[in-house]
Design a protein that fits this description.
With about 525 residues, the protein is an alpha+beta fold. The protein folds into 3 domains: about 150 residues, Beta-Lactamase; about 90 residues, Beta-Lactamase; about 150 residues, Histidine kinase-like ATPase, C-terminal domain (Heat Shock Protein 90), CATH 3.30.565. Helices cover about 50% and strands about 20% of the residues. It is built from 14 helices and 14 strands. The strands form 3 sheets. Strands 6-5-9-8-7 form a 5-stranded antiparallel β-sheet. The protein has a 5-stranded mixed β-sheet with strand order 10-11-12-14-13. Strands 1-4-3-2 form a 4-stranded antiparallel β-sheet. The chain is rod-shaped.
């Protein structure tokens, strides 16, 4: 069976309907208030008009003379008809103190009693306006006493039918209704435009889709092992995933980073630099309290407007261990391959000597192989007691020999086993990068030769590495340990920079002796601590 659930209304429809409904309610309430006020004004104006006409007629000589004489003459009827036509009144009635009409729009009703019953107070001298039903229908009527010589002799009544008043009210309210209709139409169009604009700002996504995207983003951010941190254009943290929070906690910053300035966590943040320069920074080392991290930062720009920046980072120690594991595995595999190949060649030589019964030559050959093995393995085991360092050095020596480099080894003191793994990691970084640098320097040397000497002296562990490569001038020596500096091209220059950082961590000293074309000698002295 198909899914019969109703699809939710689109955002554009929701916004358009909501704004239209609000405008309709507002216009209706406003229209009602204005319409009631307008109707009251029209009624007041008509009442005042009727009252003024009644007062004018009551003061006329024609009304006073007719009432004093008690005669219902044609002159008074003619006079009231002219005033009625000139003022658009429904009727003008002059009556005596007995409510007998002296004038009326219909002459057959002259001489009869006034209808409505609301003239009583006027007969007692009051001036007022009331609404009552007379012979012409329901009307609003003004009553004014007629006096002569200080004595009341009658009453003048001027009336306007309520239907006529309603017509006047509607005539005034047509403009209000038309204006409200135009306003509502403009509001609907504006609501539709606004809804489309909001939808475009949200990249065409519906609220449900935005919710799904946010949930997916949270899931992705939680699954990423690298720390992810985003800041706005002012440097305030707007996003931090779980890995970033854990790294902050490891550095001693347990507070929620959201909303805080990035300078709170980094004294010299790359994110601040990226916000200023709008240029990315890749694989840079930063200090987070006592934790070293590798950071890459990217600016976030929309239509040339800087919105903020994003940084990804990871603990440098984790990356170092990972790189060392990968490098060690690769080196070990390469060493095994080389030794296997070399071993097979030697077996072929031995087999050939046995078949040709060259036993004396065979004896010399076996002694030579044994001597070379004792020189390499025996040297390492004699002077390096740390198994990690020993294994690493044997791999390095084998790799150099495989590349056709003659290796000469000597020693005058034993290196003890290291108790601190971090200390060992720094030693591997220093030795490995210096050997690699020497190997690269001898790439085009006809007879490459590397000399390594290990010693222990005055509470120092030391070693010397000498090569007969191309050497270095003073400028190269001065810039050798700078980050990114390399004579091998772009994307290099991090090995010696990491070496310098490890040297600084171990408070070691390095001495360089080199001349262009005459090779290079490194002498490293590392303070030895008993606990290490």
């Amino acid at each position: 069976m198909g899914d019969k659930r109703k699809k939710p209304l689109k955002l554009v429809t929701w916004i358009t309907l909501l704004i239209s409904a609000v405008m309709l309610i507002a216009l209706c309430i406003t229209g009602i208030i204005v319409a009631v006020d307008t109707a009251d004004d029209v009624r007041d104006q008509q009442a005042e008009k009727a009252l003024n006409i009644a007062q004018a007629v009551s003061r006329s000589p024609e009304a006073a003379e007719a009432l004093r004489a008690g005669e219902q003459g044609a002159s008074l009827q003619e006079y009231t008809r002219e005033v009625q036509q000139a003022t658009n009144m429904e009727y003008i009635v002059v009556m005596d103190m007995n409510s007998v009409r002296y004038t009326h729009p219909r002459e057959d009703r002259i001489g009869k009693k006034f209808a409505g019953g609301d003239e009583t107070e006027a007969l007692n001298g009051r001036t007022y306006v009331s609404t009552a039903e007379g012979t012409l229908g329901v009307s609003m009527r003004a009553f004014v006493p007629v006096t002569a010589g200080g004595e009341q002799i009658g009453v003048t009544s001027v009336g306007i039918l309520t239907d006529s008043i309603q017509e006047d009210i509607w005539a005034d309210q047509k403009t209000l209704v038309l204006g409200s209709g135009i306003g509502l139409a403009a509001g609907v169009l504006g609501a539709f435009w606004l809804a489309r604009r909001i939808k475009k700002t949200m990249h065409g996504l519906e609220p449900l889709e935005i919710s799904q995207v946010l949930e997916q983003r949270e899931a992705i951010m939680s699954s990423v092992r690298e720390g992810v941190l985003a800041v706005d254009s002012s440097g305030k943290v707007i996003l931090a995933n779980e890995a970033a929070r854990e790294l902050f906690a490891e550095a001693g910053a347990d507070e929620d980073p959201m909303g805080k300035d990035i300078s709170y966590f980094f004294s010299d943040s790359l994110l601040k630099k990226v916000l200023q320069t709008k240029e990315r920074e890749l694989d840079q080392i930063q200090q987070l309290d006592e934790v070293e991290i590798i950071v890459s930062c990217m600016p976030v720009v929309s239509d040339t407007t800087l919105l903020g920046a994003v940084a990804t980072f990871r603990n440098k120690d984790e990356l170092t261990r990972l790189v060392e594991q990968l490098s060690g595995a690769r080196t070990y595999a390469e060493t095994l391959r080389a030794q296997s190949h070399e071993f097979m060649n030697k077996l072929h030589v031995i087999s050939a000597m046995i078949q040709t019964e060259s036993y004396e030559e065979l004896d010399d050959y076996v002694m030579s192989i044994s001597s070379n093995y004792r020189q390499e393995v025996g040297w390492v085991t004699a002077y390096v007691k740390d198994p990690v360092l020993a294994g690493y050095l044997m791999n390095k020596i084998s790799n150099l020999q495989e590349n056709g480099i003659e290796v000469e080894l000597s020693g005058s003191g034993m290196w003890p086993a290291m108790a601190d793994p971090e200390w060992t990691d720094h030693m591997i970084t220093i030795i490995g990068n210096l050997i690699d640098n020497a190997r690269d320097a001898m790439n085009h040397t006809p007879s490459p030769h590397l000399f390594m000497h290990i010693y222990e002296e005055n509470s120092y562990l030391g070693f010397q590495i000498e090569d007969n490569g191309r050497g270095m001038d003073e400028k190269t020596q001065a810039e050798l340990f700078e980050r990114g500096y390399s004579t091998k091209g772009e994307g290099r220059g991090f090995g010696m920079y990491n070496t310098k950082r490890s040297l600084d961590t171990l408070k070691a000293e390095v001495f360089i002796n080199s001349q262009p074309g005459e090779g290079t000698a490194f002498d490293v002295q590392i303070p030895m601590k008993k606990e290490n």
